[in-house]
Amino acid sequence: MTKISKVRGMQDVLPEDQKYWKFILGNFEKKAISQGYEKIDTPLVENIEVFRRPVGAQSDIVEKQMFRVARRAETETDDRLSDAEWVLRPENTASIIRAYLESKLGNLPQPIKLYYSGPMFRYDRPQKGRLRQFTQIGCEVIGDGSPASDALVIFLSYELFKSLKLAKFITLEINSIGCKTCKKEIAEKIKDYLLDFRSSLCPDCQRRLNANPWRVLDCKEKKCRQIAEVCPAIIDLICETCGKHFRDTLEYLDDLKVPYELNSNLVRGLDYYTRTTFEIKPVATGEIKEEPEGRQSALGGGGRYDGLAEMLGGAATPAIGMSLGVERIVDELKERGIDVPELEKPQICLIQLGPKAHQRLLQILPDLLKKGLRIFSAPGKESLKAQLRLADKKNIRLAVIIGEKEVFENSAIIKDLVNNSQETVRLSRLVGRLKTKLKSSKKN
Ligand code: AMP
Question: Which residue is closest in CA terms to ligand 1's atom 3?
């Protein structure tokens, strides 16, 4: 039979990696809640219209990377299939604004501060750091247009990296791409400039040049990057109000002690962004970050999207958000050799010798669990040696051994698997003794 393997671009997170995930998600949740965010979950499946306009009909995400969900008629006369297509969500911001509008969260006191975590899907070419199912954590501040909100959203990302001991390994790049009005004029100016280099651009950029010259500026192809580098700086082209918003944002970042670098080509892939855009990248250290052409290494990013609610049929609503890629942060923690807290492991292995002992262990198990002890057992194994070897391999500190004699005497043997000592205790004293031994082993 052919071997069944996972779908390309998808990954399992095995128990040995779970400590990284808990470290990231736990710290993120703590930081987000302490800064006044509330959790939101949105469905994995959405109508494609949620993304078509906001992300951009011409964007790679909408053009090439959507996972479409097959729909099925529920009755013979069901004609709902002609409704909008269903897709797996490629990102969460547009879904959250859809939920904000649909559930009329705009009627609540503003701003609404939300955080999320969950899988996103993009049918891209898989490579290191680029999966087809990946997990994002992120936040959105909806209903506040002040530059202080821009700075605070960036601050949350920075605080998270600090708590993950990664702050000194990242660079935060920031730019402003202008508001709805000046963005259009800037696009024209960039296009005029790029037209002179049209034949030197990659085929994708040549095609996109008319509809969306911005894309050329964040194209990963080397030849496009070289042309983009000498393009007029967007920051010099934005209008006076956007300029003030940007200067204020930078000033607040200084107040919050968040270090940043200006990058005038930072436009980000999605159409909905206005004004502030930012990205968090790992700093290059020696051979670690010698990146192959096209490799995407950003750990996260975000920006302001004041026009998104209108694109989805709502009233104009200023908003800003960010999202970070959990798998890439896990890779970064590993590559940088950061120690993360170990997950709680079993403390005690229950070992039985014979059917009566087996039954006795099952009788005492609920009590041990009720007292908060973490228990492992392998009831299918019979020999003492096999069970002890297993406990040792799993780094378990104590074994509780019960054989025929102990059943008869209402006792149990506690074996310390680290120093090999053992003692026999009455069952009524078992929990107390186990706790004392675990406590003393913590001190050693
Ligand atoms: P974006 O929504 O494209 O701004 O992505 C935000 C972050 O999500 C990126 O900086 C990455 O860390 C992560 N990310 C985006 N696409 C992928 C992918 N295909 N595989 C893994 N992580 C991704």
Answer: 269
Measuring CA to CA, which residue among 68, 64, 295, 266 is closest to residue 176? Answer: 266
Give alpha helix (H) positions in 274-383: 308-311, 326-335, 355-370
- Nearest ligand 1 atom to the CA of 269 is 3
pLDDT digits (tens, 9 = 90+) for 374-429: 999 988 888 999 999 999 999 999 999 999 999 999 999 999 999 999 999 999 99
| Predicted TM-score of the model (pTM) | 0.92
| pLDDT confidence tier of residue 296, bands split at 50, 70 and 90 | low
CA of 129 to the centre of ligand 1 (A): 9
Instruction: Give the residue whose CA is nearest to atom 12 of ligand 1.
Output: 325
Number of C-alpha atoms within 13 angstroms, CB side, residue 74? 1
> If you count DSSP H runs as helices and E runs as strands, how many of each does the chain have, helices first?
16, 16
State the DSSP code for 284.
P
302 CA: nearest ligand 1 atom: 4
Least confident of 63-72, 100-109, 125-134, 353-362: 63-72
Kindly give the pairing relationship between strand 67-69 and strand 261-262.
unpaired
Ligand 1 atom with least separation from CA of 93: 2
402: nearest Cα among 421, 419, 425: 425
Ligand 1 shell residues, CB under 6 Å? 91, 122, 124, 129-131, 134, 136, 269, 298-301, 323-325, 327-328
pLDDT tens digits, one per residue of 55-88: 887 777 887 899 999 987 766 666 655 567 899 9
Quick one: how far is CA 266 from the chain centroid?
21
Q: What is the pLDDT of residue 272?
A: 83
Q: Which protein residue's CA is at the shortest distance from atom 4 of ligand 1?
A: 301
Contact status, residue 252 vs residue 151, Cβ threshold 8 Å: yes
Look at residue 219 in the predicted model and tell me its pLDDT.
Answer: 85
